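Protocol step 6 of 9: fold each sequence in the batch and record its structure tokens directly after the sequence line. For illustration, a two-sequence batch is reproduced in full.

Sequence one:
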Amino acid sequence: MNANDRTPADLLRSALAADPARPLVTYYDDATGERVELSVATFANWVAKTANLLQGELSAEPGDRLALLLPAHWQTAVWLLACSSVGVVADVGGDPAAADLVVSGPDTLDAARACSGERVALALRPLGGRFPEPPAGFADYAVEVPSQGDRFAPYAPVDPDEPALAVGGLELTGADLVERARADAAELGLAPGSRLLSDRPYGTWDGLSAGLYAPLAAGGSVVLCRHLDRLGEGGLEKRIESERVTATAR
């Protein structure tokens, strides 16, 4: 990866330049049987569309705070990188009442209504499906994002020394985040081409790092698993073999 990368969005740009076709995020939900695999190019396209939604339709600006009320999910990973692209602080599990805007899953809609700013809801259905009935007071992400542009350019350059992420009482600038992700990647033994399987929740730095940032910083990929406890006997071993996993974070 490029040593000059100082924000997560920089890391994604370098990954896209290096090998756009390789897998970046492979997502499993063992409660529903869902499996989604996103190449670097496909993931970057989702990030660009989401960043355009965030900047254009939702009028978010650098320094705004976004309460991200989503579980470990491939769409959550997209939102994290979209926030970085715009310069918005992703406050994972943050207080919606203290945020400028909120992004919510289907289970946190009531809490998300405390936000007085823009509200976006994700159904988190297989294949990124929309809500059967849009929740009142929210824009349905699956309805809004497809029409957004495939390329993104921020209105203002993103400052790597400004806050980028808040999680579990920890607040990191973009540069801090990249530095920590690189250190975690080294600790996990990740290198270009590594495949890290993680079932850690996204509500902690360790979960976010293993589930996205460290593999991205290393030039590797993540196999992100929810409800891994639903797998039958021998299921984890089979997944590790079939997905060519080289490291795990449990």
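Sequence two, same batch, same settings:
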Amino acid sequence: MATTEKVITATPEYWGEACKHLMKKDRVMKRLIPQFGEASLQSRGDAFVTLARSIVGQQVSVKAAQTVWDRFAKLPRKITPANVLKLKVDDMRAAGLSARKVEYIVDLALHFDNGALHVKKWSEMTDDAIIEELVAIRGIGRWTAEMFLMFHLMRPNVLPLDDVGLINGISHNYFSGEAVSRSEAREVAAAWAPYCSVATWYIWRSLDPLPVSY
């Protein structure tokens, strides 16, 4: 039986410097950051598991996604690309995965298993180059790739403009609740660079105090 992976708290080395920068450059950050103490990004630590979970969680509630994931995680001895490729489609469907999500997870496993992803070189690659690799996988779009950059690779300057929470948070904190365009959001975020990931995390916190894990 597979063991459930633990959520680990990982504070990036740049976090403290980022907070100082943001509080100096941005009036909203100066107000928000002190409200949340020493909380920071959380990561699950395994690239394949992180992306597989993101596929399982698409278009379903958090609770439903966790239920399906728990069933799926019991199928292989350990969740690795090679082990997932050995699973029977019927068993994955019985765990609650749709036919399309089975296809997506198999495609994800193939990309990891056949070397299509340059995992060991990710630390040297740009954000855009990694996103380009990830969106070539079926079922993974730009938003999922950006969340992966933030939460798994801990990249400091990701601005996920397709994220509803970020846009809503910018609207709430900077525009008194009025609708915000992508260009307006980008203008606000100009003051956040090179720590857009950190600012985004605090914008999310302003809407939901519970720390985000991915």
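Proceed to step 7 once all outputs are recorded. Observation for sequence two: The two ends are 23 Å apart (CA to CA).
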